[in-house]
Amino acid sequence: MTEERYKELILLHSNDLHGNFMSENVDEKLLGGISMLSGYVSQTRAEHPHTLYCIAGDMLQGSLIDSEFKGISTIEIMNIINPDIVSLGNHEIDYGLSHLLFLERCAKFPIVNANMFIKNPHTRLFKSHEILEINDMRVLFIGIITQEVMNSLKLDNLLGGLVGVEDAAREVGAICNAYRDIDIDFTVLLTHIGFEDDKRLAAMLNPDWGVDVIIGGHSHTILKEPAKVNDVLIVQAGVGTKQLGRFDIVVDTETNSVKSYNWQLVPIDSQYCPRDRQLEETITRFKQHIDDKYEQMLCKFLHTLTHPSRYQETEVGNLICDALKEVLGVDIMIIGSGSIRKDKIGPLFTYGNLLEVMPYDDRVLRLKVTGAQLRRMLLHMLREETIDYKEGEFYQFSYGLCITYDRTNKRIERLDFDGRPLEDDQVLDVGLQEYHHKNFASFFGMPLSELNDGKGRVITTSLLDALREYFSAARRLSAEVEGRLVVR
């Protein structure tokens, strides 16, 4: 640069990798995969020494390899990539508090989180921040996760967090103020709270705290360009390894601010990204173990089934809901769309494929729900922030239920069950995963106590056992998108 005060900084960033290690072959071109992502990071570091690679939560959970080795495989793979800084997401806690602390000891990279703590005594679990020195600059990273995200987990009662975005903003201010005597040239928040909450957080930050960028996760948001709120740039890189965010920034080290920037989503494919052969050897070792253990054939579908988005009715969603309705004997089976972790399955379907598409095993409870209560639950699911911003929980439904939602007038035009209008006082047996039962009020907008039997009854202790039994006995299965949920 022409002036010494201006310094170059490249920030590469990922979020919600979910143990997504394998590439897909699309039109004879490899797409995604941790090997090519690692190759791109290594290539960029070699070409530009002023490069930092950040991960904004949820490295873990979502793949069979990760589940089988309880995250140890993911940490070993990430140690090879060697990210410069990582923050926690909600799924980092899925294997329990003690295991999370064990994984942190295995990691050869810093993990930051400012607002997760042991309740008694009030002690942080991780370092709240990290200051990295690069290109004669000090870059401050702070990790943030909110209680709203943590509430959706099966957490140890010892573990606590800050209540919401407002508290998170105050915590950021306290950390930034504590380092006012150190010349911090650039400040980044690594959050895992969702894109809409990132914008709310940015709006609450005091400009004097000097936060420049929020790199977020959790909502799996794909952007064309950064959002800018309160002079803070906010980005996210979708989900998985098919793309990676890249900031090329010029930092004004006198004003400690962004002089100029360019941001893009880099496609991770064989055209642009070299492969990391060392990493592939490690992945192959883990994959061979998985293939040997889980190659049992369950059934064959008539065609490949897809789940292109968690915010719409899908073939895979219909298949799984229908299977559980049949085997568990409920009137309606409701499955969280986010529980489905593959965008396509089949036509050959193995036990390993089942564990890949539904990696989160759970109990299922049967609830007594009236037609009027189901209508309220659906209206909460179909609110604008869910449809527009992909911030809320969305669901898949078993056959027999037909819903038409008028988005303009925010009302349900049609709610049929078994070909007839569902009466307000009609009572149905509804199957629901325990994860969603535990968070019923926030996910469905009404307290469990309003149901006839709010506690519900456990009808299987393993959703995966029920599905395995069903698919093992099935022949030539299929599923279609048939208009069970239509949004006008």
Description:
- The chain is an alpha/beta fold and 488 residues long.
- The protein has 2 domains: 280 residues, Purple Acid Phosphatase, chain A, domain 2 (4-Layer Sandwich), CATH 3.60.21; 191 residues, 5'-nucleotidase,  domain 2.
- Helices cover 30% and strands 29% of the residues.
- It contains 15 helices and 30 strands.
- The strands form 8 sheets. It has a 6-stranded mixed β-sheet with strand order 6-5-4-1-16-17, with helices on one face. It has a 6-stranded mixed β-sheet with strand order 9-10-12-13-15-14, covered by helices on one side. Strands 24-20-28-23-29 form a 5-stranded mixed β-sheet.
- Strand 14 and strand 15 form a beta hairpin.
Layout of helices and strands:
Layout (H helix, E strand, L loop, with lengths): L5 E9 L9 E3 L2 E3 L2 H14 L3 E6 L7 H5 L3 H10 L3 E3 L9 H10 L4 E2 L3 E3 L4 E2 L4 E6 L2 E8 L2 H4 L8 E3 L3 H14 L7 E6 L3 H10 L8 E3 L11 E3 L2 E4 L7 E10 L4 E11 L9 H18 L2 E4 L4 E2 L8 H14 L3 E5 L7 E2 L2 E3 H7 L6 E7 H11 L2 H6 L5 E3 L3 E6 L4 E7 L2 E2 L5 E7 H5 L1 H5 L12 E4 L2 H11 L11 E3 L1
Helix pairs in contact: 3-8, 6-7, 9-15
